[in-house]
Amino acid sequence: MTTVAWFHCFGGIAGDMALGSLVDAGADVDEVRGLCQRLPVDGWSLTAEPVLRGGIAATQIHVHAADTTVVRTFAHISALIEEARLPTRVRWRSLATFRALAEAEGHLHRRATEQVHFHEVGGIDAIVDIVGTCAALELLGVDDVRSSPVATGIGVVRSAHGLLPNPAPAVVALLTGAPTYGVDLGVELTTPTGAALLAANVTGWGPLPPMRITATGFGAGARELDGRPNVTQVVLGEALARTDTTGMLVEGQPVVLLEANVDDATGETLAYTLGALMEAGAHDAWITPIVMKKGRPAHTVSALADPALAAQVAAVLTAETGTLGIRGRTIERWPAARQFDEVDVDGVTVRVKVSPGRVKVEHDDAARAARRLGRPLREVTAAAEATWLADHQHADEPVASDDEPPTAS
């Protein structure tokens, strides 16, 4: 099942509020801290404090860091994140968030993205807020991020550049295309870090999406507000597909289909590209033979990716094929629910994938077991499926192996 996190930004959103909501929803703060400690920066600490905001129990995150005159660029922060050996999705989400910030700031100050100087958002506390939020999403197993319309304040805010309008220009740029609304409060409800986290990771905007709710949490801002709780809420759950009156599915998991036509790549290059796309986080990747202009034989290289990872997968597709351009479109998919299990085949562990009506052995595990046992691959596969079926199948719940179709009822 796809795990969804929906941020309810009725009180705006900031980096520490997003992180606080996820910790409040169940992300272990010690594990979050441990992942952030992989960053090659020191002189900071992270704590979580239970507080009340407008009568609502929430978690406030405190990142304590020494004052510094260091002004980091996007290139500098990217290098820190790359060096940190973070889990793949944590790294990609963090980099995408800072890239969104850099592109917004670069547009505002007419500087190249790589040369953008971060002031407030380049401080250690902001870095920990962003990487910590991405780490918390991973610890909670979040696959898809959604958001409500985003509340913003009014008036002016103070920044490293002096007084700026509220919402700050960077917030406005980051939330271009997103549903927003103003609140008559002279407070910075939504900060650039909060807006960047949404801009880089949210795949859909609107009310609470169809889900089976599993947890919720509130992240607290630093102050009390008159008339509304100063919190950001997150709701976690398992995505549910909506159906129309005929029972047809009307909403699936959003994915991006990326493609490139290539007529000058060797077979070895194409094979390597498929592996690189999967390592980059693609759900699937494949190659289709085609005929291009002037009768040239060629191939279409396709990859299916989560919207949050589309930029990373597209970069790999471009780099590995040498294509001068790629195309893409957002589509939906309806993956069947599945679970993973393990069985023992003559002392060798083999993983199996189980879905309604079917059990399938992981090919790489079966091949490894076949080599170690000196047995044919098909025998190992059959033995693994038979073992799982013997351990789990009930008389009233038929499950077929991958080699045998389900019995008709």
Write up what this structure looks like:
The chain is of the alpha+beta class and 409 residues long. It folds into three domains: 3-239, no CATH class; 253-333, Transcriptional regulatory protein pf0864 domain like (Alpha-Beta Plaits), CATH 3.30.70; 339-401, no CATH class. Helix content is 33%, strand content 31%. The strands form seven sheets. It has a five-stranded mixed sheet. A four-stranded antiparallel sheet has the order 15-16-14-17, covered by helices on one side. A hairpin with a 5-residue loop joins strand 15 and strand 16 (297-305). Helix 4 (88-109) crosses helix 5 (124-139), helix 8 packs antiparallel against helix 9 (310-321) and helix 10 packs across helix 11. It is globular. The chain starts with a strand and ends in an 8-residue tail after the last strand. Residues 395-399 and 404-409 have low confidence and may be disordered.
Summarize the structure.
With 409 residues, the protein is an alpha+beta fold.
Low-confidence stretches: 395-399, 404-409
Contiguous helical run count: 11
Largest sheet: 5 strands, mixed
- Rg, nearest Å: 24 Å
Overall number of strands: 21
Beta-strand level of the residues, as a percent range? 25-35%
Shape assignment: globular
Rounded mean pLDDT score: 86
Number of domains: 3
- Order of neighbouring strands in the sheet with most strands: 11-6-1-13-12
Q: Helical content, roughly? A: 25-40%
State the secondary-structure class. Answer: alpha+beta
- Report the end-to-end length measured between terminal Cα atoms: 26 Å
